[in-house]
Amino acid sequence: MELSLFARRFGGDSGVVDLMRDLGEAVSIHPDMIMMGGGNPGRVPAAERLYRERLRAVLDDPALAHGMLGVYQSPRGDERFRAALARMLREECGWAVGPENIAVSNGSQSAFFVLFNLFAGAFDGGRRKHILLPLVPEYIGYREVGLSDGMFRAERPAIERLPGQLFKYRVDFGQLAPDDSAGAICVSRPTNPTGNVLGDAEIARLDALARAHGIPLIIDGAYGTPFPHMLFTQTTAHWNDNTVVVLSLSKLGLPGLRTGIIVAREEIVAAYARANTILSLACGNAGPALATALLDHGELLALAREHIAPFYRDKAARALEALRREIAGLPCRIHKPEGAMFLWLWCEGIPGGSHALYQRLKQRGVLVVPGRDFFPGLIEPWEHRDECLRLSYAQDEERVRAGIAIIGDELRRSYGG
To answer: Which CATH architecture has domain 5-45+303-414?
Structure first.
């Protein structure tokens, strides 16, 4: 059987495929594995109680239940949801948006597939454009979503070493110079995998840079503001008519609903919706139905700020303290955790590299993610990308502590201690 170039590109192995395979096997084949690798959110009891209550109310109303289960919604997504979300974004964030500025996707991964291929790839006259990533490491799921090679171009960050075995990546604006082949600038905020949060001044500079080159700024807000608000530092929610913000219900504790949200000017939303109709026909209704109920009762932002954010802030602090103890005296540093649900560990000069370390940890029952696939678009060699691990602290506290202890032991062995 001969497969197409498409099949070879999307049917082969990749970092995100490996990650989800590990995740699936850990759940179904190795249930005792300590899960510090995937992006599954933790269980927040207050959130789960509220979701059950609101879903029951939807299902008990015949009209709402039929709208959730028995019909296709419009290509842009459920009208009631988009209107309720637009109202909240106007009132709470000051964004000048209406329902026409919002579209729904089957998860933010599929949203980025469409968005990136709208702005980058092949153009008339044999021209090619790319998505500019001003800061790597970046989300592992971006790497393979282009329909052709050369979809991304990335800049190496500046590294600031901080006290307490911490460090922080910063955009190196001195090296950041988009050219005519840039189709969009994209950042995640907070950043998966590092927990880095770009400050308001950095976002403003990137916004101005994008506008000066006539290209959009895309902000992946899957962990950010206004929800799920997994932030441990003060930030302002940013949007304007040259910005595309992608949000998600997943990190509210609802990854199974596969609901992503695109907020953009109407021209972009319309192009996205047409492409998404061809790819998906329509999006799922359960996520928007639940989110509409939360918005109608004024509960979505309160849940994010009063329960989701403190839950992850506390877990981050405990995981950071435990990991610091384990790496004391080793040439390792932790990226300053400012949001999301991960610790990013830099094991400088680790013998054999972080992928070999990942394999050894997997044999010992701890699943993490090696760093090398988090650098899409970085062409030049850089040993740093083979020295890092992403660790999730979202799961059960006792198991996370046990996993960190095994990681510390394996690091000491690796460095000959």
So the answer is: Alpha-Beta Complex (3.90)
